[in-house]
Amino acid sequence: MSPFFLLDFNAKMEFTASSEPRGVGVHPHRGFETVTLSYHGAIAHEDSAGNKGVIYPGDVQWMTAARGILHKEYHEQEYSKSGGPFQMVQLWVNLPAKDKMSTPKYQSIRQSDLGKHVLAADAGTIEVIAGEYEGTDGPASTFTPLQVYNAKLNPEGEALFNFPTHYHTGFLIIEGEVIINGNHKAAENQFVYFSQDGEKICLKAQLNSIVLILSGEPINEPIAQYGPFLMNRPEEIKQALDDYNQGKFGYLE
Amino acid sequence: MLDQFKDYLRKHITITDEQFDFISKDIKVKTFEKNKLILSPGETSAKTYFVTEGLLRCYSIDSKGKANVIQFAPELWWLSERNGFFNEPSDFYIDAIESTTALMIPRNYINDSAAHVPCLYDFNNNILNNSIRFMQKRINMLLSATAEERYLDFIKLYPNLTLRVPQWMIASYLGITPESLSRVRKDLAHKHLKA
């Protein structure tokens, strides 16, 4: 679903309290962006560029790995100690060839900074993370045109979307239950992938619902992927491995 | 799985489909779950594994309880415990560190097959010589090389294992502490930062 390469969804689950925070140790990335959205639970992270922070529920971390970064992600200490529900999405957003080796960067976006479009008729709110919805802009800067929103709808609330036909579009039902275009029901934890044959989508909630809306212009370039590297050609993967092994991604304890 | 083995052989020898099918009828395809222990010290096994997917490890545990890695076998690597070839019990453990698919090749495979495909003798000699050469180099490294030299040699031999294997296990292959490996990687990163 270019430019979205991967969607890692932690459906809502309860974690028991733990003094040793669970998570993923130091690992590299090159050639794309990781976008982490927390819905429940808090994630602490740290990278080799010196960035460090906590992603609380509603926040978004938009990390451009580009030519290479090392990072680690763990349950935030206080959350880990208390335990509780955890629900999270991580997206891999591809970069065009010309930007794959650009300087890594990092956008830490608090929920309060998100663009908020309040829908008419008490239907709910569209939180705009990237792109634009009905004149409301999202704070994240992106390398290619794409739209990322959280649609938070009340029961019977309706939202309309309009994306160019050639965009790749998919909805992830984080919570609740929805009807799409009048007759397609989608339940919690389901993903809806749209064919490229129209522009308008109608989303109507049956229950209180949160839907992650993804739409973007495809990057029509070859793909070579190995583990945490997403490049265009196999030689670039080999180079990424060499560079990682040689310490060219930096160092993180 | 067998096709991967055929492609591998064909990089080194000429073999027809009919010849390959004939000599491969006793090869078994085995899958091992992650962390599956395949062989333990005291057991006798003369099987050879050829990994088509995943990663096997051969290691010992010393008197202090520390694991020492003898060999990693990722895709297209051979692994066998050689005491078994002399009908003696193994000194080593073999386990799967990823979920793994491997071909189990019987002990007399080369002898039986070479009657039909004579060039297998030379090929087998070649890979045995190569593995002896490799082990001589490894002994020399363990006796005399610095931690950094050992690590640089390791990433040449196993370029993608740094992504697949935890640091402590790599350190245990290199015969250094996890702290030294960490220091080596840190020093390398700082060298590049300055350059």
TrEMBL record, chain A:
Keywords carried by this UniProt record: Iron, Metal-binding
Note accompanying the cofactor annotation: Binds 1 Fe cation per subunit.
Top-rank taxon, per record: Bacteria
Cofactor entry: Fe cation
Residues holding Fe cation: H27, H29, H71, E73
Domain (Pirin N-terminal): residue spans on this chain: 2-93
A Gene Ontology molecular function term of the record: metal ion binding
UniProt keyword Amino-acid biosynthesis, yes or no: no
Chain ranges of the Pirin C-terminal domain: 149-250
Pfam families, sorted: Pirin (PF02678), Pirin_C (PF05726)
UniProt record similarity statement: Belongs to the pirin family.
Protein name from the UniProt record: Pirin N-terminal domain-containing protein
From TrEMBL, chain B:
Keywords linked to the UniProt accession: Kinase, Transferase
Record domain Cyclic nucleotide-binding: where: 30-111
Pfam families for this protein: cNMP_binding
Gene3D superfamilies in alphabetical order: Jelly Rolls
Gene Ontology MF terms in the entry: kinase activity
Name of the protein in question: cAMP-binding domain of CRP or a regulatory subunit of cAMP-dependent protein kinases
Organism encoding this protein: Pedobacter hartonius
